[in-house]
Amino acid sequence: MNPELINDCVHCGFCLPACPTYTLWGEEMDSPRGRIHLMKQYVEGTALTPEMAGHFDACLGCMACVSACPSGVQYDRLIESARAEVERVHRRPVADRAFRALVFGLFPYPRRLRALRLPLRLGERLTPRLRPLLERLDPRLAAMAELAPPVTRRVRLPRRVAARGERRATVGVLTGCVQGEFFPGVNAATVRVLAMEGCEVVIPPGQGCCGALSVHSGRAEEAAGFARRTIETFERAGVDTVIVNAAGCGSSTKEYAELLAADPAWAARARALRFADLAEFLAELGPVAERHPLPVTVAYHDACHLAHAQGIRAQPRALLATIPGLRLREVPDAAMCCGSAGTYNLFQPLAARDLGDRKAEQVLSVGADLLVSANPGCTMQIAAAARRRGERIRVAHTAEVLDASLRGLPPTTLGRAREHTSGPTSAERAQ
Amino acid sequence: MTPAQAELSGRLLPILGPNGVITDPVRLRTYECDGLTYHRATPAIVVLPETAEQVAAVVRVCDETGTPFVARGSGTGLSGGALPRADGVLIVTSRMRRIIEIDVDNRRAVVEPGVTNLAISEAARPYGYYYAPDPSSQQVCSIGGNIAENSGGAHCLKYGFTVNHVLALELVTPDGEIVQLDAMDPGYDLLGAFIGSEGTLGIATKITVRLSRAPEVVTTLLAAFRDVESGGRAVSAIIGAGIVPAAIEMMDALAIEAAEAAVRCEYPAGAGAVLIVELDGPEAEVAHQFARVEALCRETGAFELRIADDPAERAAIWKGRKSAFAAVGRISPAYLVQDGVVPRTALPKVLAGIEELSARYGIRVANVFHAGDGNLHPLVLFDDAEEGAGERAERVSGEILDLCIAHGGSITGEHGVGVDKSRYMPKMFTPEDLDTMQLVRCAFDPKNLSNPGKIFPTPRLCGEAPGVRKGVHPLVASGEAELF
Questions:
Q1: In chain B, which residues fall in CATH 3.30.465.10?
Q2: Minimal Cα distance from B331: which residue of A?
Q3: How confident is the model at residue A1 (pLDDT cuts 50, 70, 90)?
Q4: Which of A172, A316, A424, B35 is most buried, with most CB under 10 Å away?
């Protein structure tokens, strides 16, 4: 924890209303200003107590405070270093350690996730009955079961997809870990949209996690390993621009140079690659493909790692606005996190649930047919919260909405059942 | 935990439950200061009540045990008004944030003290109303804190301070009684006495505020001047022409630099000062006045004018001004925010005096101020790592207040006296004046438990006859009482 970064905070409190945990609990030590104060206490010699670690753990890392801060405090860097320090010096209770080992040993690895497909499919019917038991055992296990997405058919993406019409760019696509395994339709839609907008798309096989889950949980070493592997993969693929369609991955890949700063050679290799969010890239590129009408009312949800961490708010809205017939509704209190926050809803299920409930209420209040976001975690989280209220909300990724419009599909194909847009041959169909 | 802490928490826990009482030392320390970090004290106990009844019960425990208590809202105050007592209870209202009622027909809103200033306006906006006072920290500061400090804001020039917008209060007196005050009550204006009392007369637990009709038109003008003097002349010319803008704000070159670094407000390059003039009201009136303001700015030397009619453009102009305080964090490791008032006509002289002080002590001073009502906010910049810089900054800050007083002004416009300025009170008031204020305080808080040590330099004990004090108080001498 860099004392200079800590001292950038002038204690004005402008971050308080932006902070989800302060909004929930109204406690200073669960606000960004309070957490920075705890960091200050720590660097000044106070021991890292379990209470202190608890307040760092309770931070979602949503970065809403970074957007709100007039003094330019780099809270993102501060909380990452605080988490690393917690991992280094704090000994968690046995159950916590076991659960963390499970999550970090599972999610970043596509093959292990794949192995989960069968038990998950079997579990789909069991979950409602198992839930009370899991809740008693550990609310985190219940959260994990509740959030598990429906298992869809696997999609094998081709290694290369040619541009439709004149080639305007050549780009790589990061397929990710959770995104690739549980939301293959989103990756397929991303590839099709890029191709239809005139991009030659390269999809290197054998990609893994980008390191986002690790770096956002204070596991910098592990994250650096994932980062090096991802950089190598795209260097080999021969692209200099990589399109990312998951907000959390987008923000962590953009910070590779900082993550690898200790090794100048690797940092330089990181800087040579440009990672760009899909909406950001498409907005720069400008539309060429014909948009077919898509009569649907959409509530757009700002993923924190897109809006706060990458400052991308206008581009996805502008992209959706290019679709004839699509009506865009703004969700009240849009800057507030939905509680998903990477692994947060697994580690802090109660706070995540409260935030999810608030978000679902606000999303449902705008009366949209479809909830659109650029992060699978957010849509899973909000859909689960809506289910708890006994309501259903259809969800889709920005890429899927654009894809439907470009291909002239009816809006009913969106969100209700992913199979419709993610058949195994759908990527090839775009060619 | 000390025995005193243990005893207190033992009595407070049944009132608030374990979730509402903080005794862990690491957690307690996060409450050691408000927006003024220069003064720090870790409270013995923090409580987070959710109802007025809980506040009253906590205060009764304090009254019975002789424990001092301090109320705190969002902790954004700039005079140390919410500085805790190491031997006391800090009562934090951040969980009391329900908007109880928006009563459009009667143009009033009823809210709890932890509701933020801006949240009231947001709740009233769908009906075409808003809450007029707008401190720069309005997105975070609590209405309870606004009551305590009688907060102002940029638009107070035309619309007045908090005291002009509060219609009724429910408050907990320092002996733990819940009472109601209403602006319509006959007799003494107790509501007026309470608002701005900086937490020394009790804790507001329910606030009824006036909602104002959103103006038909709002037009904002940004005028860039080569120097502060010509900006000052423009202000005098506008007011002299009989125009009362909703706000007239000025920022000098250093403040502009900070805001630029923080929020890229893109004010005109080369400006030695910018003036933000906002006019609101019926369309015809605003259009007429606006032409006059524009002409006056050009006559007094404005080299660039920008006019904003829609909310987005207006927000762009205000962004720099609203963020200015915190933004100086970008150009200086540490700073003090001063808050003084001078008659508008004395502005040029006082600003020249501040510049002189800045040069003499080698301390940079950025100026942001509500030019329309002569409320200065000099930001005294220093590097706390540099030996003696903090002391010099304090000196500059103090001498700025001397300047204000010398020119017929006041030591605070809207931030309050708190702990930071209590020592300047004798420069403004005679001992008799201060004694009279103490009598008011004692009428509410005879045991001196409600935010003691604020506003007054070294207050007398309640019950002591007003007058010049000679020697040590007999009760102190006999060891029966301590001076606080």
A1: 100-213
A2: A71
A3: confident
A4: A316
